[in-house]
Amino acid sequence: MNKILFSAVSKKFVMALAGLFLLLFLPVHLGINLMLLKSDPEPFNTAAHFMATFPLVKVVEILLILAILVHVTYGITLQILNWCSRPVGYAVRNKSDTSAFSRFMIWTGGSVLIFLVIHFFNFYFIKLGIVEGDPENFYAVAQQLFVIPSYAILYWICFLILGFHLYHALQSAFQTLGLSNEFWKPVIRVISLIYAIVIPLGFAIIPFVILLFK
Amino acid sequence: MKFKLKIWKQRDAHSRGSFVTYDLDGVAPEMSFIEMLTYLNETLIGKGDEPVTFEHDCHEGICGSCGMYINGYPHGPVKGLTTCLLSMRYFKDGETIVIEPWRAKPFPVIKDLMVDRTSFDKIQQAGGFISISVGAAPEANAIPVRKHSSDLAFDASVCIGCGACVAACKNASAMLFVSAKISQYALLPQGRPEGKDRVRAMIAEMDKQGFGSCSNTGACEAQCPKQIKLFNIARLNREYFKAY
Ligand code: FES
Q: Is residue B138 part of a domain?
């Protein structure tokens, strides 16, 4: 039993599950964010309030924080072990035919993590009371942030990078969980592509509309 | 044909190696890469210099001993070929060819381009076999096997254990090798009874040998001279979780 807990295959299994859980949450988050497009702050603030207070959501929230922690720590641990597996590198760069998205997961993941920390300071920590602000009016907070062009640009870059991460992430998770074969592999690839375009695009549209029309 | 060869030279496992450049003229385009290196060694011996150490045996792509990293590609730039089947006509006349040994912690360099692949043997010894003696080939219809399964098992069984997957992988992971060895048994009824023990033991040994973990990048599949497919790794993961 010991062996299964510590094997690299199991660590990846846990990492994939945590990642998939985060992928399930993204559309929910996007759904709420899209309410920012309305000129009435009420629906967004009500949704944010609901997310902050409803007991069941609290449980999900704890699971989400756990999922982030697990996904990040396992990702970093495995990456360090992987680097250790090749102490002496090649003089000529590896030219094997692979997708660039898959080669830079640690870097795209790291960038998303940095964004997440900024995001936590802007919103989540206000809710927790660590950072000052009005947790009942996130609508105003978001609107204020998005009209700063440099913030909007940072936001777009982050979601572009998130898209890169997600495209490989989804395919990789299925493979790691053993849910891929010669028939499903191309299907999963298409689903990953759609997911990796639609979700980040949905988020990216919001500051675009706010900057242009408000 | 004429080539400038930059070859990794290293006296033994403990010494520091470096590249040595050789100019080689008179290479025929139909020579294999291994023949070209043998020709280089003959000229070196003729001059009283030390030859380059590299491994080769069958010269027909079935023994897996001839692996080397050529210009950034394990087994060279042509897909589906081992170094011994790679002919010099695939290179440009006058080209500089950089040749390095496989690089991975579990594959320490023995000398020059030759690496120690005992770690693969260890994984295989941990469970890559059927432990009862099965005697002569049984009557073909005695055990029914689906055609599709038998094809997939055959495709997995062509793995020659050369280590190109490890050499190509950015994580030096051996998952493609192990998945091929697991799949060839997992897909056939003869391999099922010991299936759980096999996958547990082989994965444990793989970790113990210090191979990296798979990040599903697919460099292994791209470089495998036997074109073992990535979905074997998904099967390996499946078999592993089912075993607990
Ligand atoms: S020498 Fe046997 S595979 Fe190349």
A: no
pLDDT (average), residues B201-229: 95
Q: Tell whether ligand 1 has an atom less than 6 A from the beta carbon of residue B63.
A: yes
Judged against a pLDDT cut of 90, whether residue B156 lies above it is answered with: yes
| B130-153 pLDDT tens trace | 988 877 887 878 888 999 999 999
Residue B86, in any domain of the structure: yes
**ipTM of predicted assembly, 2 dp:** 0.89
Q: Are strands B73-74 and B96-100 parallel, antiparallel or unpaired?
A: unpaired
| Cβ(B121) – ligand 1 distance below 6 Å | no
List the domains of chain A with CATH numbers.
2-90+100-213 (1.20.1300.10)
Give me the residue from B210, B213, B234 closest to A181, CB to CB.
B234
* Cβ-nearest to A178 among B98, B219, B237: B237
Q: What is the pLDDT at residue A40?
A: 82
**Does B36 fall in a domain?**
yes
Structure confidence by residue, pLDDT tens digits, B12-23: 999 999 999 999
Closest ligand 1 atom number to CA of residue B82 = 4
Residue A2: per-residue pLDDT: 60
Q: Which residues of chain A have pLDDT under 50?
A: none
Within an 8 Å CB–CB cutoff, is residue A165 touching chain B? no
Cβ distance A111 to A158 under 8 Å? yes
Cβ <8 Å between A88 and B229: no
CA of B28 relative to ligand 1 center, distance in Å: 20
Check residue A181 and give its pLDDT: 86
**Ramachandran angles phi, psi of B115, nearest 5°:** -115, 160
Determine the structural domain holding residue B49 and report its residue range. Answer: 3-111
- Taking the centre of ligand 1 as the mean of its atom positions, its distance from the CA of residue B195, in whole angstroms, is 30
Residues of A in contact with B149 (CB under 8 A): none
Q: Does residue B81 sit in the same domain as residue B187? A: no
- Structural domains of chain B, count: 2
Tens-place pLDDT, residues A144-173: 888 888 888 999 999 999 999 999 999 999
pTM over 0.95: no
Contact across the interface for B240 and A89, Cβ inside 8 Å: no
Residues B90 and B164 in one domain: no
